[in-house]
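Hey, resending since the last one bounced:
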Amino acid sequence: MKPETRIHALSIREAIAWASRRVRASAPRLAAEVLLAHVLNVSRAYLLAHPERTLAPDEWEAFARLVARSEQGEPLFYLIGEREFYGMPFKVTPAVLIPRPETEGLVDAALEWARSRAYRTYAPLVFADIGTGSGCIAVALAVYLPNSRGYATDLSPEALEVAQENAARHGVASRLTFLQGDLCAPLPEPVDLLVANLPYVARSEWADLDPAIREYEPILALDGGPDGLDLIRRFLAQAPGYLRPIGAVFLEIGAGQGPAVLTLARAAFPRAVIRLLKDAAGLDRIVAITH
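The structure tokens again:
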């Protein structure tokens, strides 16, 4: 879609008002501000402080193109190519799932376990992020566990390219090894900590997804099979063979999958302590398997 013809030079205030009526977002004005700040390479605070500044023709055209893409339903974070996760900016492209705030709870739980483990052993921790996508989980763990090294696996080579860029951006590329392949299969050794946010959308839920998710985010990162548990089931069957003694597994799940995944986890790890952790909304979100 071509951007609308600019009748006159628009100010920042006018451009935001114009875009707020067009973008598809739950908070249209915020989305308009984020898009314009991205185009101008300034902060949102700058926009608020300089509402009368006039957009140059090339700035207007770039902004109008992004707004037109938003009107078609393309997610905001793909438009700006970035999403914050765990206090850090991460590159995102349509090859990777956009990181969600709920997944920060997975990192919280893994970090809490890893730090408690430090009191029991001085050996560097080795972790693996299975189905890494943008690499946000692996990078966050590497940043906050400086005495660690990790592996990150994914089926998608395009996703691994994005993850490697994010690792380099945050200075942890030398401690992360990226491996293409199915779930745990590419790992060259057992690890102390397995973390995974695997596809868990059931086929029956597909039609109810937000169109911005269904039409733009990668199906490979969403489709969990008929009951949403295909990859989780295979991962839990593999995990014991890739985990060191007294290791741990932290797995993100769908809100209604707790009982089923607990049953799978108990079958795979009959001697482990298995807990179901809730997210900020009080929904089942993480299965924690510890020894």
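The chain has two domains: 12-80, 89-290.

Sorry for the duplicate.
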